[in-house]
Structures are given as C-alpha cells and as structure tokens.
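Forum > Structural Biology > Help requests

Title: Can anyone predict the 3D structure of alanine transaminase?

Hi all, first post here. I have the sequence for alanine transaminase but no way to get a structure on my laptop. I'd be grateful if someone could post the structure tokens.
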Amino acid sequence: MRKFEKSKKLDYVCYDIRGPVMDEANRMIAQGVEILKLNIGNPAPFGFRAPEELLMKMNSNLVHTEGYSDSRGLLSAREAIVKYCRKKGIEEVGTDDVYTGNGVSELITLSMQGLLDSGDEILVPSPDYPLWTASVTLAGGTAVHYICDEAADWYPDINDIKSKITERTKGIVVINPNNPTGTLYSKELLEEIVKLCRENGLIIFADEIYDRLVLDGLVHTSIASLAPDLLTITFNGLSKSHLIAGYRCGWMSLCGDKSSARGYVEGINLLSSMRLCSNVPAQSVIETALEMEEETKKLLVPGGRIYEQREYIYEALNQIPGISATKPKAAFYVFPKIDIKRFGIYDDERFVLDFLRDKKILLTHGGGFHWEKPDHFRVVYLPEMEQLKFACSRLNDFLTYYRQE
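Reply #1:
Sure, ran it for you. Structure tokens for alanine transaminase below:
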C-alpha cells in the first residue's frame, strides 16, 4: 500500500508548546486524568472573560459581517489601527499598510513566506516564541538565534547580535514585551537595535502583542517609533489584551520607509489576497476594543488578578530550593531557571514529561523556546491563585526526590 509521509519542508519545523509533551497530556486526559495546564497563554479556560461591551458589539455586527472584507481588512478596523499606531508614536503608516489576520500567528507565517528564499537568514531571539523560528524555517530561510541574557534582565546581547549579522541577514525579530520571559525592553536598548539595523539594512519584525499588558506602571515603547527611516513590521492583536484568543483577531502594520521593499509588499499583497480575508466579525470589534483599554488595566495594578498572580508566582518559585526566576514585567509568563547540577538534569523535555506524569501538571520546557541549555521551563500564571499555589506545592514536592542521573 502506498504510504504518505509529511512534507520534507517540515523536517526542521517544531512547535513544542503543542508538541510531544502536550500529546502525552492529551493521552492522559483521554484516560480520565485531570491535568492542570500551565503551558499555553489562553485566558478563557481560567475564568478570564472579555469585556461585555465587546461581546455586545460583535453580536450587533454579525448581520453586517457575513461576507468577505477587503483582503487587508475592514477599513474601519484599519483606520483604528493607524490611529493606535499614531498614539504609539508611529507616524509612517497608513490604512493600506495594515493587514488584519486570523491572529498574529497567521501573519508571522505570511510575512516570512513573502520575504525569504533558501539561504536567507533572520535573527530570532533565544528564547523565542517558537512560531517565529518555525515560520522562518518553513519559508526556506534560516533562523539564527541571538542570546537574551538572564543576568541582564533577559535583555538581548547586542554584541551577540552584531556577531551574527551576515550578508544573508534580511531582518531581526524583536519580541517586546517578551514571551517567554515577560521582560520589557527599555527605549535605550531598542535604540541600540535600531542602530544595528540602520547600519546593516535590516527589516525589523516587532512582535508587540503584549504591549497593553505591562505591569508596575512601566511604559512600552514601540520600536517602529524609533525607526521612521527603516521598514518595521509591527504585529499586534486583541487575543491577550482583550481576552478573546479564540476570536483570532490580529494585525500587522508596515511602518517606516517602504521605498526599498516594493517587491516584498507585492508578495505580502499576493499572499494576503490568496487567503481572501481574515475573520470579519472579529475585525468589526477592533475599533471599539482599541478605545477601551481600562478593562485590561484593572488586571495589571495592585489588587488586579494578573498583578497579584504575578507577585505570587515570582515569590513562590524563588522559595523552591533549586529554582530561581527573574520577575516578569509584562504578559503572563515566567521563565524560571532550574539548578540542573542539583537535580542531575540533562534533558529538559524529559523533566517536564516526568513532572506531568507524576504530578498531573503541564509545563513547557525551555528547549521548546529554542533555549539551548536544559535549565529553564515556562510557567503560565493565568490560573487562579489556589491553582498556582497547588502547582508550586507540587513542584516543590517533586524536586525533593527528582533526579535524572
């Protein structure tokens, strides 16, 4: 009988947030085992609800959003996104520069497919959000990982970036606020990255999906606002900030000087047209959503759920012998370090698998974010406080006896 294998294009593509460990969790769930999932930033299962005004707006728009929109998206949505860009200090963007998507995920893949040929390189942070590396690879390019330094609050190592720029480098991915570390980059750091891009003619791919989930009164700076003379593609959306991940509502904005990228823009337009358009009912709430940030802000201040859970998980993890964590400043992830010598750990995927099987709690190993050493894992701190306390208690107990050697 003829056999059908997966495409060879997928040989080096991985997305371990939903990979083998998740497969094992699903197998256990199918057997009736209850699993606490701390692996995916999906607010809805943990009791977060979208603002009622947003739901009412979508409901009232349904009768008007039954057909396709322009391939870029509804004009009202794109106008609202341009207005939001201007609010962030990004002037060089118009409605024809905005593309809505079925989440940012679709647009990351589209942006890479439209640009890369075999041998082209894109600088991607380590750790990264793994879809970036996967999309570069799937498009035929090579993801070159630059190091983010935990000792420097997870900031990118500028010298490491410099050392990895070659004549084949077409762009750099900057994830700010960062997933998986939760760090927020300073304006000064972003200016250093812009300077490198200016000197080397690089496109900046700015993943800013968490820019409205910043804690401690800090301010997010859009890198595009610092680089009006460079092509910067800024990615954003409503999945996280407005708690509607399932609606798949994202966008990308082509900001800055686009004069040297006419061919690339043609490619983006072609790919955008091929998928007809993104989810139109979701597009219809963008304008309303971007005018109502106060609902999100309530979660981020003392007494707010995300703030209080961030405070707890940071303190609790650092009290576990052999675990240390840098305090996240945005989003809802923490990327703790584990003392691998203490526990004899040489395989981080095995570590999270063993923890899953023993304690019925699902984490993501650091290697899933293209972190080379087996000494980190990511925790999503969206579950309610009692669940987080339960998880930390289980982890503490597990590490009293766990050894890989």
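The radius of gyration is 21 Å. The mean pLDDT is 94.
Shout if anything looks off.
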